[in-house]
Design a protein that fits this description.
The structure is a homodimer of 363-residue chains. The first copy, chain A, has 363 residues and is α/β, with parallel strands linked by helices. Chain A has 2 domains: 135 residues, Arc Repressor Mutant, subunit A (Orthogonal Bundle); 216 residues, Dna Topoisomerase Vi A Subunit, Chain: A, domain 2, CATH 3.40.1360.10. Chain A has 13 helices and 17 strands. In chain A, helix 1 runs antiparallel to helix 2, helix 3 packs across helix 4 and helix 11 runs antiparallel to helix 12. Chain A starts with a helix and ends with a helix. At the A-B interface, strand 5, helix 3, strand 10 and helix 5 of A face strand 5, helix 3, strand 10 and helix 5 of B.
Chain lengths: 363, 363
Amino acid sequence: MSADNEAEAQEKLIDLAAEFYDQFERGDIPEMSVPTRTKSNIVFDEDENVWVYGDRESTRSANSVRGARKLLKAIYTIEFLSEQLEADRSSTLRELYYLSESWDVNEAQFSSQDESNQLVEDLEIVSEVTREDFHMRPEESGATIMGPLHLREQTRRGEREIHCQKDVGEGGYQIPNNPDTIEFLDHDADFVLCVETGGMRDRLVENGFDEEYNTIVVHLKGQPARATRRITKRLHDELDLPVTVFTDGDPWSYRIFGSVAYGSIKSAHLSEYLATPEAQFIGIQPEDIVEYDLPTDPLSDSDVNALESELEDPRFQTDYWEEQIEIQLDIEKKSEQQSLASHGLDFVTETYLPERLEAMGVL
Amino acid sequence: MSADNEAEAQEKLIDLAAEFYDQFERGDIPEMSVPTRTKSNIVFDEDENVWVYGDRESTRSANSVRGARKLLKAIYTIEFLSEQLEADRSSTLRELYYLSESWDVNEAQFSSQDESNQLVEDLEIVSEVTREDFHMRPEESGATIMGPLHLREQTRRGEREIHCQKDVGEGGYQIPNNPDTIEFLDHDADFVLCVETGGMRDRLVENGFDEEYNTIVVHLKGQPARATRRITKRLHDELDLPVTVFTDGDPWSYRIFGSVAYGSIKSAHLSEYLATPEAQFIGIQPEDIVEYDLPTDPLSDSDVNALESELEDPRFQTDYWEEQIEIQLDIEKKSEQQSLASHGLDFVTETYLPERLEAMGVL
C-alpha cells in the first residue's frame, strides 16, 4: 500500500469524526448510517458485475444511551486508527479489542470482540476505506502461491523480489496479510487455479501441474482469507488471467467458490475490491460425480438444507447453478476433490483437469 | 530425506510383509502387534527424556475374519507404499483412502478414512519408519518461520537456498511437509520462539523482535503440525538453540506446549523424532494473569475439566505445572496472549517477553 493510501485513509477517518462535530454544531443529534448487512439487502451491481448492499440502512444515533455509546466507541476507534496510520503501525482486530481496556473512558471500552469487529466493518463501509488500509490485520493468515509469477513485495524491512517457483520451497510463497504491498513484475502464466484443500494443492505441485500448464496455483485453505481473495482478483484484473476454482463437490465448497466469485454477504461492501466475478467453477460438479464415477458420501440433512438455501441465494440464481444443485439433490451424494485419487494419483492432472479446463474454454 | 532413508523405509515395509509369510510357513496364524495407544500406556523414557508407549499391546490376528481383513489391508497398503517409494512419489492420507477403491480385492478397501489413518500409524510404529519416510503427506500444512536462519531445501525441482528474513516476504518461510528435506546452512540466532497465534506472530514480526533479539520465530498455528514440531526439534538439536513456547493462558494451550515438549499420546512412537523435551514454557502463565493484571475470561466447565485432566496427565506431573494449574483453578480465569495489548502494542516485545526470557535464563 502506498503512503497516498495511508494519508487518504487517515483523512477519510477524520472526516467521519468531523461529521459528528458538524451535526453537533447544526444542533442535530449525531448519527451514523450503515447498510443493513443481511442476505435480503444485497443486490446485483450490473456495472461492476458483483453483489453489493442495497438501500436498506441501520442508523446508530446518539438519541439513546446505547446509540451514544456506540458513537463514543467509534470516535475512540477512529482516534486509535488515525494514530496507528500516523505512526505506520498496524494491529489485529483482537489487539484493538484488548487495547480498548487502556482507554481512559470506561464507556468507550468494548464489551466483546464481536462489538469491535463489527465497528471496524462499519467504519470500512462508511469511510469506504478497507480494513487493510486502516492497517488492521486479520487473525487468520493468507495462504500460498506456487506458479510462474515474479513479484516484488514491499515489507517493513525493505523490498523483496520473489519468483513463486524458483525462490520458494515446496511450501510456496506465503501471501502477506495485505497483498496490496505486492507488485507483479513478470509472469509466464496462462491461468489461475484456486484450490480448496492442502492435499490437492500438494498433489498439483508434486505432479508439476503449475509447470506443465503454466498455472498459478493459489491455495484457498478452505474458506479463503481476504488476502487470498484480494490477490486472486488482482491476478485476474492486472494480468488478465482467467481464474478457475477447484473445490470439493458439496454445498459448503460452492460457498467457497461464491466468496471468490461473488463476494460474501458479510463483506459485500468490499466486493469490488475482493470479488472476481469472472471466476469459473471447475468442480467437483455434481455431474462429475456421476460422469467420473467418484466415491461419494451421502448428503446429510444440513447438506440438503445448505443446497436449498443456495437455490434461494441471489448469487446462485443462474441456470448453471440451479441445474447442478438440482442434480445433487437428486443423486443425494457428495464427493471430495481428493476422491479423484480412486482412479490413480495422476488422474486429476492428466485427465480430469485437462478435460474440465478444455470444456470451460480455458485450455 | 535422503535416498538412503527411502531404501531403508522400503526394506522395513517389505520385512513386515515377509514376516507374514514366515508366520504362514511356520504354520502360525499371521498376526501383528502394536502398542496400545492410550494415556494409561505411556511411560517416561529416562534416557531420551520423552514419553513413549509402555508394554501393553494390541494384536491384530488373522484368527478372526475381522482380523484377517485388517492384515489384508495392511498388505495392500505395504505394497502401495513400497511402489510409491520406488517411483519417488508421495500422497496424502486421504488419497490413500480413496485409492483403495481401485484395489482389485474389495475386502482390502478401507471402509473409512479413520481406518486407513490408523493403519498407517500402526505401520509407522511396527516398522519404526516415520510417515514422512513413507512419503505420506498430511492434510494440514506446516506453518512459517521468520528469523536469522539460512537454509537449503531439497525440492522436487532442485535445491533452494533461502534466508528466512532476507529472502521471504512478511509472511515468512513456509515449512514444507517434510522438513527433513531441509539442511541448516548458517544462522545468527540465540533462541527459538514458538508462537501459538497468527496475530501474535505478526506482532513480533512487525515489532522486529526476531531482529532485535536474534530470534527464530516459529508460528505454531494452534496445535502444531508434525512438520512444525519436527523442525523445532531439529533447530534445538542441531543448532543447540534453546526453544521457548508462547501460547494463550488456558488448558488447551498448555496441551500445545505439551505436544512440542513431550509429544502427543497419539504419536508417542514418534516422540524421539518430534518432541523437544528441553522446550520451556514462556506463558501466558496463570501467575502472569495476576502479575500483569491481564484482561481475562472466566474458566468454562470444559476448561476446568481439561485442567483437572492435565493434573492427572503424567506429562504435566511436575512441580511447575502443578503449581500453575492450581493457581488457575484458584483464580478461575484465563487470558489470551494478545490480551497483553491492553498495556499497549509494544508491551509484549518491550516488557513481557524480555522479563520472562530473563527469568527463564534464556536472555
